[in-house]
Amino acid sequence: MKSLIVYAHPEPKSFNGALKDKAVETLEAQGYEVKVSDLYAMDFDPVARKEDFKNLTDPEFFKYAVEQKMHMITMN
């Protein structure tokens, strides 16, 4: 079995960090393959902004979902 832990805390030595470590330890002891996504380590920014896109489809009326879709189309 596989398990994904999404971890978001700026201090690894925090209580949240200890809970994450214990979860990894417990799951691995039960035979799980565990992956941790540490959002702070990845510099993840949860705020959606116009500045996320270099070129806007419609600069006069910003729609994040449209821009995101167009970005995905141009990547493929």
Count of alpha and pi helical runs:
2
Number of E strands: 2
Q: Report strand %.
A: 15-25%
Average pLDDT level: 93
Largest sheet, in brief, is: 2 strands, parallel
Q: Globular, elongated, flat, extended or rod-shaped: what is the shape?
A: elongated
N→C terminal distance: 31 Å
What would you report as the Rg, rounded to the nearest angstrom?
Answer: 18 Å
Q: Uncertain regions: pLDDT < 50 for 5+ in a row?
A: none
Q: Secondary-structure element order, as H and E?
A: EHEH
Helix/strand-derived class?
alpha+beta
Topology (elements, then pairings):
Layout: E1 2-7, H1 15-29, E2 33-38, H2 64-75
Could you explain the architecture of this structure?
The chain is α+β, with helices and mostly antiparallel strands and 76 residues long. It is 36% helix and 16% strand. The protein is built from 2 helices and 2 strands. The longest helix is centred in the first third of the chain and has 15 residues, at 15-29. 0% of the residues are buried.
